[in-house]
Amino acid sequence: VTANHELSTRRSPMRAQADMVSEEPDLERIDANNSFVGPSTHVSHTTLRKYQDIFVDAALSWGIGLSVDGRSLAWQFRREKRSELEKLGINWAELVAIELSIRYLAADGAIGTKYLIHSDNNFAIRCLNQLKCRNEPSTVIIDKILSLFAKYGILARAEYVPGKRNLADAPSRGHRSFSKLRYNFPLPSHLQ
After folding, report:
1. Is 174 left (phi over 0), alpha (psi -120 to 50) or beta?
2. Confidence of residue 52 (pLDDT cuts 50, 70, 90)
3. Rounded Cα–Cα distance for residues 78 and 56 (Å)
C-alpha cells in the first residue's frame, strides 16, 4: 500500500469474540436490528455520533479508499501481492477498509464513540454488524476490529451505500482528485 506499506497474509492468533468482549465489560453490543445495545439503554443508529460521513471502499485493481467528511485517503496494493490479494478476495479487502477506517478514527481521537460507516459491500457490512464472518481470513480482520473496539471504546455499524454514491470509490481506484486526509498511525503488521 502507499507509503511503502504492502499487504500480506501474516496472521496473528485469532481471539474468540467472547474473550474480546469480556475484556471490556461495558462494551455495548449490536442487536439483531443493527442498533447499539448497552447494559441498560438502547441507542439506535440515528443517535450515532456523525463523525462526519465515513465511507470505505476497496478495489483489487488498485487499493483501499477512505473518505471522512469529503476528505479522502488511499492505500495502494503492491503489484507483487496481487495474486495473493486475488485469493483473499474483494470481500476481505472491503473488510480491511473498514478496519483501516476504525484505526483512522482511533488515531484521530475518536475514543468511546459510535460511528456509522458506509460501504458498498454487503459481505463486509454483514460481518461488521454481526461481529463475525464465515471464512478464516475475514474472521482474522473481525478479530482485529473487535480488539480496536475494546481498546478504544469505539463501536461502529455499517450501512449500505450504492457504489456510485460511495465517496471512497474514487480513492480506492487511485483517482487523485480528492482532498487528502492525513493519517498518523502505523499500519498493523498483518497489513505491512
Report:
1. left
2. low
3. 19
Alpha-carbon separation of residue 132 from 95, 120, 139, 144, 188 (angstroms): 11, 18, 6, 11, 20
What are the pLDDT digits (tens) for 77-92?
A: 888 888 888 899 999 9
DSSP bridge pairs for 160 = 119
CA distance linking residue 6 with residue 77, whole number of Å:
6
Cα distance between residue 157 and residue 177, in whole Å: 28
Q: How many residues does the chain have?
A: 192
| Residue 71 zone, left/alpha/beta (φ > 0; ψ -120 to 50; rest) | beta
pTM over 0.85: no
Per-residue pLDDT, 51: 56
